[in-house]
Amino acid sequence: MADKEIPQGGGFLLGPTDPETAFVPEEFSDEHKMILTTTADFVTGEIDPVSDQIEEKDHELMKKLMAQAGELGLLGSDVPEDFGGLGLDKISTACVTEEIGKSGSFAVAQGAHTGIGTLPIVYYGTKEQKEKYLPDLAAGTKIAAYCLTEAGAGSDAVGGCRTKAVLSEDGKHYIINGEKMFITNGGWAETFIVFAKIDNTDFSAFIVERGMPGVSSGAEEHKLGIKGSSTTTVILEDAQVPVENLLYERGKGATIALNVLNIGRYKLGCAAAGGAKGALETATKFAKERVQFGKSIAEFGAIQEKLARMASKIYAAETSIYRSVGLIDASLHGVDPNDPEYGGKASAAIREYAVECSIDKVLGSEVLDYVVDECVQIHGGYGYVSEYPAERYYRDARINRIFEGTNEINRMTIPGELLKRAMKGKLPLMAAGQKLLGEIMEYSPMMVELPDEPLAYEAHVAEMAKKSVIYVAGLAAQTFMQKLIHQQELLLKIADMIIEAFAMESCVIRAKKAIASLGEDKAKVYMDMTQVYMDEVMPRMMAWANECLAAMAEGDDLRTMMVGARKLLKYNPANAIAIKRAVAAKVLDKNGYPISY
């Protein structure tokens, strides 16, 4: 991508995407593959054998495993080499995150530590702060936690923040009082990123150590899932935090929180994709071993359909996520971690893809939920008892739709961020909408000539899906104008259309790249999963468009609007049953996800 112009965040909606600007997993370097293998070996060799002990919150075991992960470099990929890390690209971090995502509670502890716990210091710390804290965090000899959430604040973490910081009389400390809740790693972390309002006004971040006076943890929460992770309140009672532990600048806490959460969102998507692959592998193995009516249940079409849909959804999530991470990597290219302005430059690069990060979070977490649910179903009654891993997968997965901003908040972020950029003139969505509205009645899907090549029709459909987003969103903006922000139900449906348009295009691009590099025969499973995914999504796209349009007009006006939507979303269904059988055959042959690297 180095010689290509990097697409704008959200710019995928404006026209065909150059495939060369979309990273796909088939482009992993040898180093990326080595990282995947190292991480996978760590999960299967070190974590899986002690998973029952982890579920009992064995504090010493968790510390030992984190230190082992640190020795392997699995905690320091984002940390610059000068401060004890490896300073790798974001694709490398995504590789680690995906494989660790199969490890349940450990994945939550590791993810919170390496992401929202460590990255605020990586991006916003002073040289002295980085030298003091990052080596231990990269090595895993100290564990980090991120203290943002408070009782009553929920998703309004900034506006609802009640934790207060005041400067001591001698000017040497900030005295912090407040209580943070639902803090991952809260019971065993030594380093906390704490958000508080200085003088009750300036929302700011601080690096707080467990050993500082006035810092303590509450009791462990009893949770539905991820039982082996630590979740507690973190209590600050006249906590004395040295002034040099103010992170970044006074009043810039929101900048830190939002940008680090963007990274947390795509990383959560990566972990969810990895967890989904693990659940598919487990379901496949069980289906092949479970015998009913004289043969394995894997031979039944009903089970094969489940396996094919699970694999196709994982394919869409994985493909979308790595595409996004590739964009972030390209945007960060040339940004020097040792630059005093690194935090600001990195923030701008990451902030550019806030829409894509939210897409990844929603798509990954909801694909994982679907896959673990089907994993339980394939197990039947066995899936409901704790002796089988399907039960734990099911419980562990549920939190991901709440972590890193609820999926509802992320859905609101997607169209909200796009409209904000359009209003500022950063993204010409308004002009694209006006042009499309002028052309739509003249457009005829019957007049489109497609090239004679594989996936030409699917590429056309994906492009029309993107146009449908611009069409519906443009009409919504015209209808509600400044009041559109209050039409949450409509915005949620538009967000779903955006998510799926991005996912469908990502699937097509990846499949086309696979055809080019592997040949059509070896790329058939890519083509099949793309068709399976699109065949399920397109009817939903039409339903979402209709629901949105019905909220804007009625009678003849509504019928006219719906004509335009039908033209854009016209879709000829594939022989999905036959294609799913082909995908299922690959899943069974591979004993899980049908693509390997």
Structure described in brief:
The protein has 597 residues and is of the alpha+beta class. The chain is built from 19 helices and ten strands. Homotetramer.
Description:
The protein has 597 residues and is an alpha+beta fold. It is 56% helix and 10% strand. Among the domains are: 146-247, Butyryl-CoA Dehydrogenase, subunit A, domain 2 (Beta Barrel); 410-590, Butyryl-CoA Dehydrogenase, subunit A, domain 3 (Up-down Bundle), CATH 1.20.140. The chain has helices at 30-47, 51-55, 59-71, 90-100, 105-117, 119-124, 127-139, 253-289, 301-332, 342-351, 354-379, 389-397, 407-423, 429-439, 456-480, 488-518, 524-550, 555-568, 576-590; strands spanning 144-147, 164-167, 173-184, 191-198, 202-209, 215-217, 231-242, 246-247, 291-292, 295-296. Strands 1, 2, 3, 4, 5, 6, 7 and 8 form an 8-stranded mixed beta sheet that branches. The longest helix is centred in the middle third of the chain and has 37 residues, at 253-289. It is globular, with a radius of gyration of 24 Å.
CATH level-4 homologous superfamily of the domain at 410-590: Butyryl-CoA Dehydrogenase, subunit A, domain 3
- What is the helix tally? 19
Average of pLDDT: 95
Q: What distance lies between the first and last C-alpha atoms, to the nearest angstrom?
A: 21 Å
Main sheet characteristics = 8 strands, mixed
Gross geometry: globular
CATH architecture of the domain at 410-590: Up-down Bundle
CATH topology of the domain at 410-590: Butyryl-CoA Dehydrogenase, subunit A, domain 3
**Uncertain segments:** none
What is the percentage of strand-forming residues?
Answer: 5-15%
Number of strands: 10
The arrangement of helices and strands along the chain is HHHHHHHEEEEEEEEHEEHHHHHHHHHHH
Radius of gyration: 24 Å
**Residues in helices, as a percent range:** 55-70%
Query: Which structural class is indicated by helix and strand composition?
Result: alpha+beta
CATH class group of the domain at 410-590: Mainly Alpha
Catalytic activity: a 2,3-saturated acyl-CoA + A = a 2,3-dehydroacyl-CoA + AH2
GO molecular function, one term: flavin adenine dinucleotide binding
Keywords: FAD, Flavoprotein, Oxidoreductase
Pfam families: Acyl-CoA-dh_C (PF21263), Acyl-CoA_dh_1 (PF00441), Acyl-CoA_dh_M (PF02770), Acyl-CoA_dh_N (PF02771)
